[in-house]
Amino acid sequence: MKLLTASLLTFAWPLAAQAEIIVTDPWARASVLASRPSAAYLTLTSDAPDRLLEVTSPVAGHVMLHGVATDSAGVTRMVHIEELDVSPGTPVTLAPGDSHLMLMDLSRKLEEGESFPMTLVFEGTGDVTVDVPVLGPGAMGPTEERP
Amino acid sequence: MISKPTTQTLRHVRLALWAGAAALLLLAGGALTVRTYMAPPAPRATSVGEADIRSEFALMEHTGRAVTEADFAGRWQLVFFGFTHCPDICPTTLAYMASVLDLLGPQADRVAQLFITVDPVRDTVPVMAEYVSAFHPRLVGLTGTEAQVAEAAQAFRTWYERVEEKTAPDGYMMAHAGHIYLMDPDGRFEAVFQERDQPPEAVAEEILMQIAKEEQQE
Q1: Which residues of B touch A73 (CB under 8 A)?
Q2: Min Cα–Cα distance to chain B from A122, Å
Q3: Residues of A in contact with B168 (CB under 8 A)
Q4: By C-alpha distance, which of A117, A113, A130, A121 is closest to A29?
Q5: Which residues are within 8 A (CB) of A106 and not within 5 positions of it... i.e. 6 or more apart?
Q6: How far B176 CA sits from the closest chain A CA (Å)?
Q7: What is the per-residue pLDDT across A134-144, written as a single tens digit (0 to 9) for each?
């Protein structure tokens, strides 16, 4: 029910003055092999300053927000981000090869074509639950899925 | 809209790589004690020769065959170091390399795509076989002993490091450089790319250009 409400809020956002956070194009990569972390991506838009505090999903034991930092030597490392600020007018996009939500301790392999719920906990808005479709292991984004 | 990498940007990429290679040499000198995710400021590059980066390795192919660089001689090589527990950079880059291979069309026969694991303890031959097949039927997975992988990484002057991470499977992740090396048919360094810097079309175009140049010289 919570999921349905969140989806309704998401779709009805232009009409609903209450909703502050829009989650666009959430998706995750299918697991190639069992017991390996996967990654989820999405875009966040807010009409008020807010902060993403935590992400949870029934399919994952832990969800960590990772950024990617490349130093001047060209070494790329994942950087654990504790909290993510979202400012009005500046969408935050998590995309392949950049920031991502790392889904750890998966309870099962994520199979292409399925979807799973993921809850984003914001300081101001509270919980926003989205349905995350699982795309192929080599997918680069959800655009190919659109009509 | 696809933009071709300009000479200028390629030069920047090369400069960055040389800086990286020089930094690695300095780091290997004993300063490599960093155990956090945050990268330390890189030591300033001095100078380093192009001959430093070579495709030289003795590893095990995902098919179970023992191979060295000689098994790929005469073909261009596109080489990436990563590991199968990597959630983002590795699948993203391998999918990107698969796109490049498809874009090469009939010339794809002249390019070997090698994925070398930096986590050979977990990435055994059967694991590599299952993993690479998810990306492209022609992608070659390479593993070996920890010493063999370290030697391969040394030949390519690439960098990786085990990072303890309590919540990760088996309690660790591997940090590693995200470069894709283009090596010529003699195993010499030709160019380096990162997935985020240009669309796969640009890399395919660069490789086709190199192949055409090679054919002119023959």
Answers
A1: 19-20, 23-24, 39, 42, 159
A2: 23
A3: 37, 104
A4: A113
A5: A31, A35, A36, A37, A38, A59, A60, A61
A6: 7
A7: 999 888 888 65
Strand-pair category, B180-183 with B76-82: antiparallel
Report yes or no on B38 lying in a domain.
Answer: no
Ordered structural domains, chain A, with CATH: 2-133 (2.60.40.1890)
Does the pLDDT value for residue A45 go beyond 50? Answer: yes
Is position B203 within any domain? yes
Interface test with B, best of A77, A106, A112 (most B CBs within 10 A): A77
The residue-averaged pLDDT of A106-116 equals 94
Q: Report d(CA B50, CA B4) in Å as an integer.
A: 24
* Residue A133 pLDDT greater than 60, yes or no: yes
Q: How far apart are CA A43 and CA A92, in angstroms?
A: 6
Q: Assess whether pLDDT exceeds 50 at residue B170.
A: yes
pLDDT at A19 over 90: no
Is the pLDDT at A58 greater than 50, yes or no?
Answer: yes
**Residue B205: helix, strand or coil by DSSP?**
helix
How many domains are contained in chain B?
1
Q: ipTM exceeding 0.85? A: no
CA distance B49 to B34: 27
Amino acid in position B62: H
| Phi, then psi, of B30 in degrees rounded to 5 | 130, -5
d(CA A134, CA B9) in angstroms, rounded, equals 35
Residue B156 CA from chain centroid, whole number: 8
- The CATH number linked to B116 is 3.40.30.10
The rounded percent of chain A whose pLDDT value lies above 70 is 81
